[in-house]
Write a structure and sequence with these properties.
Elements: E1 2-4, H1 11-24, E2 29-32, E3 35-37, E4 41-43, E5 49-51, H2 52-61, E6 72-76, E7 81-86, E8 89-95, H3 96-120, E9 123-126, H4 145-151, E10 155-160, H5 166-176, H6 179-182, E11 185-193, H7 201-211, E12 214-220, E13 239-241, E14 246-251, E15 256-257, H8 263-266, E16 271-276, E17 287-290, E18 292-293, H9 296-305, H10 308-317, E19 321-325, H11 327-331, E20 335-338, E21 347-350, E22 358-374, E23 380-392, E24 401-403, E25 408-409, E26 411-412, E27 418-421, H12 430-438, H13 449-467, H14 470-475
Parallel strand pairs: 1-10, 2-9, 3-6, 10-11, 11-12, 14-16, 14-17, 17-19, 19-27, 20-22
Antiparallel strand pairs: 4-5, 6-7, 7-8, 13-16, 15-18, 20-21, 22-23, 22-24, 24-25, 26-27
Helix pairs in contact: 1-2, 1-13, 5-7
Length: 477
């Protein structure tokens, strides 16, 4: 099990790279994260939800994602509350304090999923969540030391030198953990070293001598990180990225979800994309994309509070195009109603009014993988749906996607200046990206996005083979 001294120390990426390295050695590897918190979800083949990081790790293993790779997924809907997904299905909603009380009820499902993966793998790589030293949450823990104890696992602790204080964070973790927990830690990794690695030789020795843990490697910063799908909004850098002539703007809303939708598009050489932070105006551009959201009404209120609705009107008046993805699609309609209070209090909001649709949020969530063709270009698309809303209205007579099962999805304004769809993964196929770029007179690079990610995973595996003592880690198990 790989745990961290804190959040965002690189656990997910290291597990993905190790999964790829060990899979290339001919071993059957499975990733597992008992509890994840993310609105960047993936859809499994059986219509379940897991964290996007575990889907990436499954790709590294060369297997299809399974709900058992991430049996508990928390999807934040507010500052303190989350929807709880258990083994791929909605289990309920809780505020943060209430969740602490129900965690013991979830441990059986967590252990069941882990046992299923153990039965089909040579090695299961387990990823912790947040910090191993959250002793205030230890009593009912299912994500870190609580799970390690329940499953009787050895632990390797990861610290991030790039953020500073890595010696104190590693040694300090040992000092605050009870003896039964810190004795489970067999080794440590220092991640994201920049500059001359030899400058930290003494630091590695100090940590090993003070803790008694085996040093498993000092990992330099991986320069191709941006080619891998980000899991946390903290990984989304504000400002312009890319130097292409096609300028695309994405407002960064608090409950943004499934933002990896944009990865393939922003990798296009002809594209420059900017995530716009709160408090900043939407700058002049060719296309504004409203991304997915886990709390659509709250994000719509936030959008208006920033004055972005006024900026969007000016953009539309200048002839700029607008695209809404899932929650962003709902915002572009006439209204959004939440009669059951699924996102908080029961309410109704006026939408931005660019598409002739009305949306009602309902308890039954749509979660499925889909394929189809963009309209009117007929470019093939493939991805997934994951939403709680049902949209109706005359705008649906001008759909954006025709699905292979005969259904239609999304809506377009007359002339196609504004479009919206529930489809996630719209830009993953080269043909659909080319359609979007052609609308602006730009050429597309016909790369396959899944292969692009796999190539980056191979580079990551090479990087870890060079800088980690993988055999030493395996000997600690």
């Amino acid at each position: 099990m790989f745990q961290g001294t804190g959040s965002n120390v690189g656990k997910s990426v290291l597990v993905a790279g190790l999964a790829r390295a060990l899979t290339r050695r001919g071993l059957k590897i499975r990733p597992f994260k008992p509890q994840n918190m993310s609105n960047n979800a993936a859809v499994t083949s059986d219509g379940g939800e897991i964290g996007r990081a575990q889907a990436l790790q499954a790709l590294a293993c060369g297997v299809m994602p399974s709900v058992h790779m991430n049996p508990v997924l928390l999807k934040p809907q507010s500052e303190q509350g989350s929807q709880i997904i258990v083994q791929g299905r909605v289990w309920g909603q809780r505020q943060a304090r209430g969740y602490q009380e129900v965690k013991p009820l979830l441990m059986p499902a967590v252990l069941d999923s882990f046992a299923r993966l153990q039965a089909e793998a040579d090695i299961v790589l387990v990823e912790g969540a947040g910090s191993a030293s959250e002793v205030n949450l230890r009593r009912n823990d299912i994500a870190n030391m609580g799970f390690a104890e329940a499953a009787d696992l050895p632990v390797i602790l990861i610290g991030d030198i790039d953020r500073g204080g890595v010696i104190a964070s590693l040694v300090g973790t040992q000092s605050v953990l009870p003896a039964s927990d810190h004795e489970r830690i067999r080794g440590f990794i220092v991640n994201r070293m920049r500059g001359d690695p030899s400058l930290f030789d003494d630091g590695m020795r100090f940590i090993a001598e003070r803790t008694g843990w085996v040093p498993c490697g000092l990992v330099p910063f991986f320069g191709r990180m941006r080619e891998l799908p980000p899991e946390d909004t903290g990984d989304l850098a504000a400002g312009w990225q890319g130097r292409g002539a096609l300028r695309i703007v994405v407002p960064l809303m608090p409950m943004i979800a499934n933002f990896d939708d944009l990865d393939a598009l922003r990798a296009e050489p002809e594209v420059a994309m900017a995530f716009i932070s709160p408090g900043e105006a939407l700058p002049p551009c060719d296309l504004v994309i409203l991304p997915g959201s886990k709390a659509t009404i709250a994000d719509l209120d936030f959008f208006r509070a920033q004055g972005w609705d006024i900026d969007l009107k000016a953009h539309h008046r200048r002839g700029g195009r607008i695209l809404g993805l899932c929650g962003g699609y709902q915002m572009l309609g006439r209204s959004i109603a939440d009669p059951d209070g699924l996102e908080g209090n029961a309410c109704r909001r006026e939408g931005l009014g660019y598409l002739d649709i009305e949306t009602e949020l309902r308890p039954m969530k749509t979660v499925r993988q889909i394929e189809g063709n963009l309209l009117p270009s007929e470019a093939p698309v493939a991805g997934y749906e994951i939403h709680a809303g049902v949209s109706v209205g005359s705008g649906l007579t001008r759909p954006y996607v025709r699905l292979v099962d005969g259904r239609y999805d999304g809506a377009q304004s007359e002339g196609g200046q504004v479009c919206g769809t529930y489809l996630h993964g719209l830009f993953d196929r080269a043909e659909s990206r080319a359609t979007v770029l052609t609308q602006f007179g730009r050429m597309s690079d016909p790369f396959d996005n899944a292969q692009r990610i796999l190539t980056a995973l191979d580079a990551l595996a090479d990087h870890l083979e060079e800088h980690l003592s993988i055999e030493k880690m395996l000997s600690l198990c």
